[in-house]
């Protein structure tokens, strides 16, 4: 009987610890959603509508080769087009970078998310 109680207590303790970690949102989300924020809008560009905005790096490291997924959406919420766009500049630590992407006619809004990125190498290079 004692063995069963010890086993049940261990299971209860494990479940309680797991629930506590989940409640803290520890490690939740992808790195792309944890380290970046995107503000965008649809604007009239020179050659038709375009999605433009800023990618904000909320982390303490410099990001390079940032790629965005841009979904152009019409007024009914239907996705008109999906593109992958490279942010033309690096995104500095705690900074931002501007981006634009062409959009099809009829685009009312856009959903933009960071698809991938790399951290810039940190110093420390030896040498003479």
Shape: flat
Helical coverage, percent range:
10-25%
- Biggest sheet, spatial arrangement of strands: 1-2-5
Reported by name, the CATH topology of the domain at 31-119 is Immunoglobulin-like
The biggest sheet, with number of strands, parallel, antiparallel or mixed sense and barrel status, is: 3 strands, antiparallel
Our estimate of the beta-strand percent is 35-45%
Number of strands: 6
Rounded radius of gyration (Å): 22 Å
What structural class do helix, strand and pairing data support?
Answer: alpha+beta
As an assembly, this protein is single chain
The CATH architecture of the domain at 31-119 comes to: Sandwich
Q: How would you sum up this structure, described in words?
A:
The protein has 128 residues and is α+β, with helices and mostly antiparallel strands. It has a domain at 31-119: Sandwich (Immunoglobulin-like), CATH 2.60.40.3230. The chain contains two helices and six strands. It has a three-stranded antiparallel sheet. The chain has a three-stranded antiparallel sheet with strand order 4-3-6, with no helix packed on it. Strand 3 (63-73) and strand 4 (79-86) form a beta hairpin. The radius of gyration is 22 Å and the shape is flat.
Task: Provide tags for this entry.
2 helices, single chain, Immunoglobulin-like, alpha+beta, 3-stranded antiparallel sheet
